[in-house]
Amino acid sequence: MHPRWVAVGQRCCVGVLFLPDDPPKAMFLRLTSLNSTFHTNLNNAMYLKKSYFFALCLLVLWAVAAVPALSQGTKPGFYALKVFHLKDQSQEERLDQYLQNAYLPALHRAGVAKVGVFKPVAPTKATAADSAEKLVYVFIPFTAAEQFFKLDEKLAKDKQYATAGKDYLGAPFDKPLYSRFETTLIEAFAGMPGIFSPKLSSSPAERVYELRSYESASEKLHLNKVSMFNNGEIDIFKKLNFNAVFYGRVLAGDKMPNLIYMTSFENMAERDKKWKAFGQDPDWKTLSAKPEYANNMQHADIYLLHPTAYSDL
């Protein structure tokens, strides 16, 4: 064995075995082949290492971007409920024109979907003294509180809205579109952080949307009632197919502390049937009998509504 080739073999490829009778040329060719294989495997290993590192970087970047988005999806939404008080049919017709042709389209352009517009099925206790008064309820769902607070600013920049809503926006003092209106700000329950758009098959005139407000004697009892919804009551409504549109606690309104929620039915007969089933439900009886939920609701207001033909809900 030629010592010069042994030195090269030892330096370039550890573990290469040369036979004593190998000629120098054969040894050189074997070393060249092994050296080429060594570098090929080394390059492959480096490539795989870089690929794994790149994939790991992509995974980290995805996690950084996805985690806030996922957590944001679980945050409760915010809702506004506007109630217009009208004195006659003329105001109602003008308000309908404004809502259908100006306000709802502008809300859609501002990123607000599924706006509900409703009118009472029959006069309520609040309007019994003045049966001529008409009410229009406008339910506006927001994904965040910021969307609510910046809505007026967006509408002010909407030229289509300014044109379509001219009668409402420029109404003279002696010919207004309403007597007054109030706005209630609502935060969605954790048990149902967003709205549900029911798939009802009956005509809008037959459908019944039931809006309920539950007042409590104190803020502590109010939060206790909210907890009762989140920890059992919402599940019972789901089980009995009440088609709840939303549940929320009032952050700013005229009947605080209170919560508000809306359920929906194909017609009045179905509504009556489901409420009867609710009262007889064993899960409700168990939940309502728990001592920790005693006396957490002091007064209830119930509003039975029909959706307008142009309502999104």
Explain what this protein looks like in three dimensions.
Helices cover 46% and strands 20% of the residues. It is of the alpha+beta class and 313 residues long. The chain has two domains: 3-72; 75-307, Alpha-Beta Plaits, CATH 3.30.70.100. Strands 1-3-2-8-5-7-6-4 form an eight-stranded antiparallel beta barrel. α1 runs parallel beside α2. The longest helix is centred in the first third of the chain and has 50 residues, at 24-73. The protein is globular and about 55 Å long. The N and C termini lie far apart (93 Å). 26% of the residues are buried. Residues 1-19 and 62-73 have low confidence and may be disordered.
What's a concise summary of this model?
This protein is an alpha+beta fold and 313 residues long. The protein folds into 2 domains: 3-72; 75-307, 2-Layer Sandwich (Alpha-Beta Plaits). It contains 10 helices and 8 strands.
Task: Provide the descriptors you would attach to this structure in a database record.
8-stranded antiparallel beta barrel, disordered N terminus, Alpha-Beta Plaits, 2 domains, single chain, globular, alpha+beta, 8 strands, 313 residues
Tell the overall outline.
Answer: globular
Q: Strand fraction band?
A: 15-25%
**What's the CATH first level of the largest domain?**
Alpha Beta
Q: How many alpha or pi helices?
A: 10
The helix/strand order is: HHEHEEHHHHEEHEEHHE
Unreliable runs: 1-19, 62-73
Distance between the termini: 93 Å
CATH architecture field of the largest domain: 2-Layer Sandwich
